Structure formats: structure tokens, C-alpha cells
Amino acid sequence: MTPFGILYTLHVLSALVWVGGMFFAWMVLRPAAMKALEGPARLKLWVEVFQGFFRWVWIAVVLLPVSGVGMIHLQYSGFEAAPRYVQVMMGLYVVMTALFIRIQALLLPELRTAVAAQDWPTGAATLGKIRKLVGINLIVGLVLVAIAAARP
Questions:
Q1: Tens-place pLDDT, residues 54-78
Q2: Alpha helices, DSSP H only, in the chain?
Q3: Which of 6, 77, 111, 140 is least surrounded by CB atoms within 10 angstroms?
């Protein structure tokens, strides 16, 4: 496999883990948890889900720009020669990362604290904020994937 092929594979797998994980959580796990679990158990589940999933997202957050910059240098000899869609993808990555860090650094600790204190109303409100940001991030991620898939 060529160096470009290795970088491309890492890039696609990282995006798949991050965007696919959000899609699964939003479209499958969330509705199932709503049907199957009462509020406190659902909040405890999400604390555990986020902890496990966010480890993988951090790997993607690191691998995406490393592999992306590597591909840019191998294919276009630098940023200035990269096509516009690559620049748009880089901007959307920054948006996704900022939303993820907001959830990880601010909202997840708030959710953990509420669950530990058995403050279910605060936990539910915090989970609602997380859900909205994940939904926005999922939309951004799907747009980014669509841009990548439609590239010339």
C-alpha cells in the first residue's frame, strides 16, 4: 500500500468511527433507550456511552488532521494548491471538533455530576443540551462526508 493509501484509509476509518458513531447514537440507541429505560437508568447509560465513545472520537480528532494534512502534501504539494472542497472540509472539521470539545469539556462533566448526585432534572436538561449539539455535529459530519464523496 502506498503512503497516500495508508493515510486515506486512516482518514476514512476515522471519519466513519466519528460520524457513524453519532448516527448510531442518534438514530438507533437514543430511541431504544427512550423506550426501554426510565430516566435515571437512561442518564446512567449515556454517561457510560459517552465515556466509551469519546475515547474513539479523540483518536479520530487526532488522526483526521494528521492524515488529511499528509494527503494534502502528497497529492497537492501544500495547502495553497488544494482544491476548495478540501478547504471546506478542513473548516467543517474545526466546527465539529469545537462542538465535540464543548460537549466533552463542559457538558459531560455536568452530566456526570448530576447523575452522581442523583439530580435527575439537571441530568435530563444537560443530556438534552448534549443531544442537540450531537445532532448539529451529526448534520455537519454528514455534510462533510457528502462533500468528500462528491469530490471531483
A1: 999 999 999 999 999 999 999 998 8
A2: 3-24, 30-36, 39-76, 84-102, 108-116, 120-149
A3: 77
Give the torsion through C-alpha atoms of 106, 111, 117, 119, to 10 deg. 120
Asked whether the beta carbons of 141 and 18 are under 8 A apart, the reply is yes
Residue 30 vs residues 35, 46, 58, 135: alpha-carbon distances, Å: 9, 9, 22, 11
pLDDT reported for residue 152: 63
Phi, psi of 118 (to 5 degrees): 55, 35
Sign of CA dihedral 49, 47, 14, 139: positive
How buried is 52 (Cβ within 10 angstroms: 0-12 exposed, 13-18 middle, 19+ buried)? Answer: exposed
Q: Mind giving me the DSSP string for 50-61?
A: HHHHHHHHHHHH
Dist CA 131 CA 151 (whole Å):
30
Q: CA 104, 134, 33, 43: dihedral to nearest 10 degrees?
A: 30
b vs e for 60-97, b when ≥16 Cβ sit within 10 Å of the residue's Cβ?
bbebbbebbebbbeeeeeeeeebeeebeebbebbeebb
Q: Hey, CA dihedral for 43, 46, 50, 52, is it positive or negative?
A: positive
